[in-house]
Design goal:
With 119 residues, this protein is mainly beta. The chain is built from no helices and eleven strands. Strands 2, 4, 5, 6, 9, 10 and 11 form a seven-stranded mixed sheet that branches. A hairpin with a 5-residue loop joins strand 5 and strand 6.
């Protein structure tokens, strides 16, 4: 069972920046897909950014150019650099790991970290 612990959330003014971290309790590998999701009050959880094998990344349209996902497999950590934050970015941000072992998909979630952007 992989434990994921997010940190770095907080209160920031619009236009500001935050850097979220997600530390895994065991090794993460290049073939693992690491994701950041978010969930705002009254809304469904949505995918923000993904980091796949070979350094591939994908972003939701509403964060492209503002957010950057990165990972340090040696430190078992994935990051989300968030710039030019907007009030609509306010949400609980969750780290997610997807791993395929022997053809089975395993999914792990962190507990989430609150990001609040004031106008």
């Amino acid at each position: 069972q992989v434990q994921l612990v997010e940190s770095g959330g907080g209160l920031v003014q619009a236009g500001g920046s935050l850097r979220l971290s997600c530390a895994a309790s065991e090794s993460i590998f290049d073939i693992d897909v690491m994701n950041w999701y978010r969930q705002a009050p009254g809304k469904q959880r949505e995918l923000v950014a993904s980091s796949g094998s070979g350094g591939s990344t994908n972003y939701a349209d509403y964060v492209k150019g503002r957010f950057t996902i990165s990972r340090d497999n040696a430190k078992n950590t994935v990051y989300l650099e968030m710039n030019s934050l907007k009030p609509e970015d306010t949400a609980v941000y969750y780290c997610n790991l997807r791993r395929i072992i022997l053809g089975s998909l395993l999914t792990y979630w962190g507990q989430g970290t609150q990001v609040t952007v004031s106008s």
